[in-house]
Design brief:
41% helix; D-Maltodextrin-Binding Protein, domain 2; 13 strands; 287 residues; alpha/beta; five-stranded mixed sheet; 23% strand
């Protein structure tokens, strides 16, 4: 049997070339989601040189981040974002996000930091770096007062509304499998669905459910806390040690100034009323 050695050698070279290209592609894919120190466009030095801090915030979530009737961005997270930009000595650029694209916004370098009511979870820790927390929260359930849901057992076999990418979605997916979830991309969509009677209840972070029912008195937060207590933190791109270190120092500094309690009294208290105390939300010590 005769071997065509020229053909065999050409085939081998081609195979090696393809393998090399695949390997390169894999390396590039894994490194694009991690901040490289040499080319980190979101390092503190790069932000100061650019003169702009890009902050991802919600645009439809009062009292944390939304656009008011005058077209101005306001809210608890927005006030924190403005203060951080001021302390960095730069201007601020807001990047509006939904719950399910916060990580992608960081990884695509559209934002330097996320301040969009971002709850810390073990799964999220694998894809972003969280700074020190500035808020505590847990999942709550809101429903019409006439058909109030006051315990989880009442939800068995029923539909519950959630926003995609939230801790409420994760909790019910993992721990309440007898519930059918209706998932939406934005807060506006999810609350409209509840008003249109598309489900028995809606689950989300309890802190802003309190604010929502104050403006919508036909509804009640029948289940005030479900699942574990959790924390809200700023998030930066995985590996962005420069901005992470600065943010941790900033959170500590602002705590010493009592910034978060003042922010609560200005931005949150008018929306919560007497049902919620600052100590229910604010983390006042952060060493």
């Amino acid at each position: 049997m005769k071997f065509n050695w020229k053909k065999i050698i050409k085939t081998a070279i081609a195979t090696v070339s393809v393998a090399s290209l695949v390997a390169t592609s894999v390396v590039q894919t894994t490194t694009t989601t991690t901040a490289n120190a040499a080319t980190n466009s979101s390092s503190v030095q790069a932000i100061k040189k650019r003169g702009v801090l890009k902050v991802a915030v919600f645009g439809d979530l009062p009292p944390y981040g939304w656009v008011n009737k005058n077209g101005k961005r306001v809210g608890y997270d927005v006030a924190l974002a403005r203060r951080m930009a001021k302390d960095l000595g730069v201007k601020i650029k807001f990047v509006q996000v939904n719950a399910n694209n916060r990580v992608d916004t960081l990884n695509s370098n559209k934002a330097d930091i996320v301040l969009a009511n971002f709850t810390v979870t073990s799964a999220r820790k694998k894809v972003v770096d969280f700074a020190k927390p500035y808020m505590k929260v847990s999942v709550g359930v809101v429903s019409p007062k006439k058909k109030a849901i006051t315990k989880v057992s009442q939800l068995k076999g029923k539909k519950v509304i959630v926003t995609k990418g939230t801790t409420a979605e994760n909790y019910f997916t993992q721990h309440q499998k007898s519930v059918t979830l209706l998932k939406f991309d934005s807060k506006t969509q999810q609350f409209n669905a509840l008003k249109n009677n598309r489900a028995a209840a809606l689950a989300d972070d309890n802190s802003y459910l309190y604010a929502w029912v104050k403006k919508n008195p036909k509804y009640t937060v029948g289940i005030k806390s479900i699942g574990p207590k959790q924390y809200i933190s700023p998030a930066v791109k995985k590996g962005n040690k420069s901005l992470l270190k600065w943010t941790n120092q900033e959170i500590t500094k602002l705590n010493k100034e009592d910034f978060f309690t003042k922010d609560y009294n200005k931005e949150l208290k008018p929306y919560f009323g007497s049902e919620v105390k600052p100590s229910d939300i604010v983390i006042t010590s952060n060493k």
